[in-house]
Amino acid sequence: MNETIRMEDTFRMEDTFYILAADSTADNVTRVLKEGESFAVFDRYGDIQSVGLGEEGVYHTGTRFISRLVFTLGNHRPFLLNSTIKEDNLLLVVNLTNPDIYHLGRIVLPRGTLYITRSKLLRQGVCYESFRITNYALSPVDLSFSVEYGADFTDIFEVRGVKRQRRGRYLKERVEADRVCLAYEGLDAVLRRTQIEFAPEPKTATSRKATFNVYLNRKEQKEFLFTYRFDVNGSKPAGRVHYYRQARKEAEFALTQAQAEGCQIWSSNEKFNEWVNRSISDLHMMMTETEHGLYPYAGVPWFSTVFGRDGIITALEFLWINPHLTKGVLSYLASTQAREKDIERDAEPGKILHETRTGEMAAVGEIPVDRYYGTVDATPLFVMLAGAYFDHTYDLEFIEKIWPSIDLALRWMDDYGDQDGDRFVEYARQSSRGLLHQGWKDSWDSVFHADGSLVQGSVALCEVQGYAYAARLSAAKLAAALGENARAAILLKQAEDLRTHFEEAFWLEELSTYALALDGEKNPCRVKASNAGHCLLSGITSPPHARSVAEALMAESCFSGWGVRTLATSEARYNPMSYHNGSIWPHDNALVAAGLSRYGFREEVKRIFQALFDACLSFELRRLPELYCGFPRKKGEGPIPYPVACSPQSWAAGSVFLLLQACLGMTFEIPQSRITFKNPVLPDFLDEVRLKNVRVGEGAVDLNIRRYLQTTVIAVERHKGSVAVIVEK
User: Fold this and answer.
1) Distance of alpha carbon 252 from alpha carbon 631, whole angstroms
2) pLDDT digits over 428-475, tens only?
3) Which pTM value belongs to this model?
4) Alpha helices in 415-484 (DSSP H)
5) Are residues 154 and 285 in the same domain?
6) How far is it, in rounded angstroms, from Cα 167 to Cα 188?
7) Residue 23 half-sphere exposure, CB side, CA atoms within 13 Å?
8) How far is Cα 248 from Cα 255, in angstroms, rounded to an integer?
């Protein structure tokens, strides 16, 4: 061929934050990027279309700035060769080729002639895109390609299924030779603009489509660059079309710097290394720089914002890897702590934030979450995290700075959190638009009695009492370090009183576990759930009861083979496909494992670790999602995905680090500059683990950990400063 080729539902209204799933997405594989206040959900081709849940798009500050993006060769969609998110999560790379192209009944361009690489990057409010097209024909090719685009400026809650009575107005598009501007003025009087720039400029451009002609000699490659800039009220992000490579270098440098600050993990199992590396990259991607420091946004696509509980648990999981994140979380939550009562936001003085949103619907009050405080556990967890941070860093100066917030949180636990004076921390929704249930299992049907009937009145969750117990012990330690010995003594007595009353009110001898909750009449919910495992984490459990809880959690009704279920199969509302009533959550399993480790149940910890490792092998990119279904494990089959799970999700990404710490029984004593490993073990899939730059105050060590049959040996390979490594059997 010598001539030149030419080509021409139903859901409960009280569950305000339910995610509407009107269509199956089992085969709708997506690719996710996130950086700062922006995130993107593409299909495998790198396109954005209205399919599945309709969640595809590029979002910025809670609004979808790109709702359509479709690349075609002439009138044809290219063939997909492969697509992946690079291990560092910075770049989406899609490799494509042309289909057979016909003209007058004959093939004029055989499939596989053109090689097209499409790369995308998010950086500081800009989405960069590169198209590289290479001609492998024996003769020149003259072709055209098009990119269709659109911006609906939809609020993320609209995408999730919330119906609005009215919206703002779309402004007239502006089209120039090398750029297009799409604009929308919301009901919040905020002007949002998507500015698209092309290099080189297209042959034609409209407000919906740009078309390019390209002539390629044999083996020639040409590149086309696009930028999509997200402008909010004239913010004017700096990125321009020719900044693509500079932005990529900056992103790579930032990642390298961040990873160098923390502990690095290497093992003898390459698949485990892939899990660890993806988790590190996911957490870096989810971390967002705020005016108070780094904060891990919860999950993409539905929860890409600050969540109090999620941030605290992620920081706890990641604390021994890098405590810098914990400081950012504590600083942010202290600064946004409620200072007055606000019924519409479920806010009370001392309460820690549940979530915050910045989109149009939050700004005009259509949803109550510009700042929403409907969480019962974030407040004691905040105090727990402060104690854990101090244990790991001995940073008394910072603790003194946030002590007023810690003190206010403790007072909330005593007053607003325990309005009936029974020593238990309870919740009851005040806002008509808020969450009905305010523990980590916040679905409308997640707290119930043995017959399946839903609880009424104020609710005291078992794990929250554990958090309150641990919070008071942590606060007592902090108070003593600050010289407030009298306050420390009071807190210790409160903790012991709570522990005694908790055992009396929550223990269910007939079920060998703790009640899920007490209802408004103080009747126990006689239900087996993973919540009891969190009681082990906090230390509120007596040793004899801890063994019973461990046995219950690892029984077949609770442990699926892929992890501990949120709810036992024996319970009335068990459903392996539900959000909270029978599914498996990686972070939940990590917290349960840490609790089991606290009481010395290392074999049980190994089983959970093995289960989650095996599960990660079935998920793309070795990325554990927010949750997956709780069906029993079957030979030759993987875990069944949950259809609307966020992936990545910060506390799911952090689970691997807490699981490893739980297996090793690793604790830190900074005043003594000491790391202690109590009865350390490694799961069967790990023969050797190396930990580089494990920080202990101002010092650090590199460790080599090896498994020899039933013995785990720990060797110190490098010291920085005076750090003692103690191994206890």
Assistant:
1) 40
2) 999 888 899 999 999 999 999 999 999 999 999 999 999 999 999 999
3) 0.93
4) 462-481
5) no
6) 10
7) 11
8) 11
